[in-house]
Amino acid sequence: MEWVEIIGILAGFFTTIGAVPQIVKAYHSKSVGDVSVWMFFAILAGVILWTIYGLIQKDWPIIITNGISMLLNGTMIYFYYKFTEKSFTRKKR
Amino acid sequence: MEWVEIIGILAGFFTTIGAVPQIVKAYHSKSVGDVSVWMFFAILAGVILWTIYGLIQKDWPIIITNGISMLLNGTMIYFYYKFTEKSFTRKKR
Fold it and tell me: Which of A34, A38, A47 is opposite residue B31, by nearest beta carbon?
């Protein structure tokens, strides 16, 4: 395996798992007030398009890395609304 | 220009500007307590590696999109410490 391939795999790894630290923090703190959900919508739109791009090109590394990113960014959007709703219902009581 | 190229450009656009909504929110709210800085470090590591990958491959779209992402994610990391420090000094007074 050449150097450039290793750099590509490492690069793909870091950009794929990028959302994980924010997911973990939101899950533990249940507080997302400072988080911009639009960031995750923008990235989700991007990785959905990259997945389609990969499918058309039959490029498996692009399909897999962006497919995982889709799941992770989708999870963070779900957490955003779940913990925003929770703090909203708490205020109503 | 073929369909697949348009999809690739759009995908690159969304993933490149992904950090912008969070940067704008942090700049206006000056509050970053719920934000995970490790997310931006992970993505920064990834886009630095993608930029190196692009330089080796002489692939200008990869160099440009990830170069911009480097600046944006670097900006968010700067904002994170700037607004975290500020709220820290306010507590100390």
Answer: A34
What would the pLDDT profile of A19-46 be if each residue is shown by its tens digit? 999 999 999 999 999 999 999 999 999 9
Distance, in Å, from the CA atom of A20 to the CA atom of A72, rounded to the nearest integer, reads 7
Looking at residue A85, the DSSP 8-state letter turns out to be H
CB of B9 within 8 Å of any CB in chain A? no
Put simply, whether A67 touches B (Cβ < 8 Å) is: no
Domains of chain A are 3-87 (1.20.1280.290)
Complex ipTM more than 0.90, yes or no: no
10-residue mean pLDDT profile of chain B (93 residues): values are 89 95 96 96 96 93 93 97 75 52
Q: Do residues A56 and B10 make contact, with C-beta atoms less than 8 angstroms apart?
A: no
User: What residue of B is the nearest CA neighbor of A22?
Assistant: B36
Kindly state whether B19 is in contact with chain A, defined as any CB-CB distance less than 8 angstroms: yes
